[in-house]
Amino acid sequence: MDETFTLLPLHLDPTSKAISNAAIPSSALDTELTTLNALHRTLLTLDTSNQVPPPPVPVNPKRSANITKLRESGNTSFRKGSHSDAIRMYGLAITMALTRPPWEPAGLVRDELSGLYANRAQAHMAMQNWPEGLVDAESSIECKKVGNAKGWWRGARCLVEMGRLEEAMEWTTKGLEFEGKDGDLLGLSKELEGLLARKK
């Protein structure tokens, strides 16, 4: 197998230590360098004495507390009927969870995001923002397929409300495969069977 080494004309900024692409136009290389420079900036902001990343566990308790506080604020706003404020709070919590340092456990991030996206989907549904609710339900399911009956149900309900009954039935069937005999999903499945039978 022939292997080729390509010397790339990279430039290291002496002040910021950021690496840039000096000559060759390449979006793939630029993306890699952006990620590398972002990681470097994150490492510089560490609270540790020698700026070495801590082990994956434990996680930063301040960030976890802030995410929890934002989620609870969103839940409170939702219960008060202030759905747009709830969406904003869940969005802030999602952003905070997504910007966790890359060395923190990915499983924690997925669990946080799964619940936050499912909650924001519910807030969108309360405002009859069906497409936005569906996108958030799909995001919730992508983060956590098993043990997420709410995400499956909310996605299927959004599809029903948009008149996409066949897709809703597929979504519900797949949700039941992962969740077993969840009552809400079974109820929605029966409702869809009736709607599809009337449609024929």
Structural overview:
- With 200 residues, the protein is mainly α.
- The protein contains eight helices and two strands, in the order ββαααααααα.
- It has helices at residues 27-44, 61-79, 83-98, 106-126, 130-143, 149-161, 165-179, 183-199, and strands spanning 10-12, 19-21.
- Strands 1-2 form a two-stranded antiparallel sheet.
- Strand 1 and strand 2 (19-21) form a beta hairpin.
Mean pLDDT: 88
Proportion in β-strands: under 5%
Total of DSSP H or I helical runs spanning 4+ residues: 8
Structural class: mainly alpha
Our Rg estimate from Cα atoms comes to: 22 Å
Q: What share of residues is helical? A: 55-70%
Tell me about the largest β-sheet. Answer: 2 strands, antiparallel
CA distance, first residue to last residue? 59 Å
Strand order of the largest sheet: 1-2
Give unreliable regions as ranges: none
Based on Cα principal axes, name the global outline: elongated
Sequence of secondary-structure elements: EEHHHHHHHH
Number of strands: 2
Describe the SSE topology.
Blueprint: E1 10-12, E2 19-21, H1 27-44, H2 61-79, H3 83-98, H4 106-126, H5 130-143, H6 149-161, H7 165-179, H8 183-199
Helix pairs in contact: 2-3, 2-4, 3-4, 4-5, 4-6, 5-6, 6-7, 6-8, 7-8
